[in-house]
């Protein structure tokens, strides 16, 4: 779908490394003010796409505009209006929390007075005000991640690129970061996020694409994708390790039946009704669970359950 008002617009975008095509002709529109997600297994092409959008890797073919400009011609002008949160924190651990913001702000040619005022604002936003004069090294992983995000905002970016923003964090730190990112979006900052956490994508993303093998295999809001590729509920049945799974007895009870090594998944509109019908057929699982369908169900259906190194 063409969106000429898009903040990021790609048409048949390609990235090659020698003979290998990491990105194979994708079309993407990211609208101003939305949170847009790239999901996919390792090697799907997410990071290669993000690097092209971030003006640090040239495209091999196709069209790409960011903030209405060409990254290969206008890279410095685009980067001045971008914020980037890399997958791995690259803070200067020998400086204090506040000094990390001051030094980074000077890279953008901002005045010392502006950077000082902005740093104080961002420390409050990231809930790091009490640690402002502490060195970075002793900070927790969640605090370092919040500082990395705060640093990426020093130039008041219109577009913020976040690569796996909460990888390795505990649930409390993840939820605090989600809150900070939601506030950013509410303030008008456009977010582009790559993540392996399906619950994160459901929480943060207005729209997303699922990539696999360098191509886009699905696009839509989380709710749209769940409605399109899954069912309202999923029934999980587990059986004793030495028992044969009764797939034949369950045939026809659900829209789709998936056999996993440790359990059976039955996709249906009403999981409890399917469970009752299974019991009526004499199926007695070791345990059962009815849950709502999630983006993870969609992701695994589209990209497979095989481990990708």
From TrEMBL:
User: What PROSITE patterns does the record tag this protein with?
Assistant: ABC_TRANSPORTER_1, ABC_TRANSPORTER_2
Q: Which SUPFAM superfamilies match?
A: P-loop containing nucleoside triphosphate hydrolases
Is Membrane found in the keyword set? yes
The record ties this protein, via InterPro entries, to:
AAA+_ATPase (IPR003593), ABC_transporter-like_ATP-bd (IPR003439), ABC_transporter-like_CS (IPR017871), ABC_transporter_ATP-binding (IPR050763), P-loop_NTPase (IPR027417)
Q: Name one GO biological process term.
A: response to antibiotic
PANTHER family documented for this protein: ABC TRANSPORTER ATP-BINDING PROTEIN (PTHR42711), ABC TRANSPORTER ATP-BINDING PROTEIN NATA (PTHR42711:SF5)
Name by which UniProt lists this protein: ABC transporter
Tell me which species this is from: Actinophytocola xanthii
Traced from the root, the source organism's taxonomic lineage reads:
Bacteria, Bacillati, Actinomycetota, Actinomycetes, Pseudonocardiales
């Amino acid at each position: 779908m063409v969106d000429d008002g898009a903040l990021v617009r790609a048409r048949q975008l390609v990235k090659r490394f020698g003979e290998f095509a990491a990105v194979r002709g994708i079309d993407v529109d990211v609208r101003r003010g939305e949170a847009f997600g790239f999901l996919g297994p390792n090697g799907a092409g997410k990071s290669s796409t993000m690097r092209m959008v971030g003006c640090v890797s040239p495209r091999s073919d196709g069209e790409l505009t960011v903030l209405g400009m060409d990254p290969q011609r206008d890279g410095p002008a685009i980067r001045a209006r971008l914020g980037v949160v890399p997958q791995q924190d690259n803070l200067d651990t020998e400086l204090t929390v506040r000094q990390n913001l001051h030094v980074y702000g000077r890279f953008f040619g901002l005045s010392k007075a502006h950077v000082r005022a902005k740093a104080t604002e961002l420390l409050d936003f990231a809930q790091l005000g009490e640690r402002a004069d502490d060195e970075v090294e002793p900070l927790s992983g969640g605090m370092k991640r919040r500082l990395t995000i705060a640093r990426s905002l020093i130039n008041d970016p219109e577009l913020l690129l976040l690569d796996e923003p909460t990888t390795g964090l505990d649930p409390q730190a993840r939820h605090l970061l989600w809150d900070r990112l939601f506030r950013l979006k509410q303030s008008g900052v456009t977010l582009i996020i790559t993540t392996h956490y399906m619950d994160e994508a459901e929480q943060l993303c207005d729209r997303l694409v699922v990539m696999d093998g360098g191509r886009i295999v699905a696009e839509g809001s989380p709710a749209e994708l769940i409605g399109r590729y899954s069912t309202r509920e999923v029934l999980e049945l587990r059986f004793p390790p030495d028992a044969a799974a009764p797939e034949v007895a369950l045939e026809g009870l659900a829209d789709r039946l998936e056999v996993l090594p440790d359990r059976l998944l039955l996709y249906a509109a009403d999981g409890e009704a399917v469970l009752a019908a299974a019991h009526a057929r004499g199926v007695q699982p070791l345990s059962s669970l009815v849950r709502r369908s999630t983006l993870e169900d969609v992701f695994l259906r589209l990209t497979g359950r095989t481990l990708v190194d």
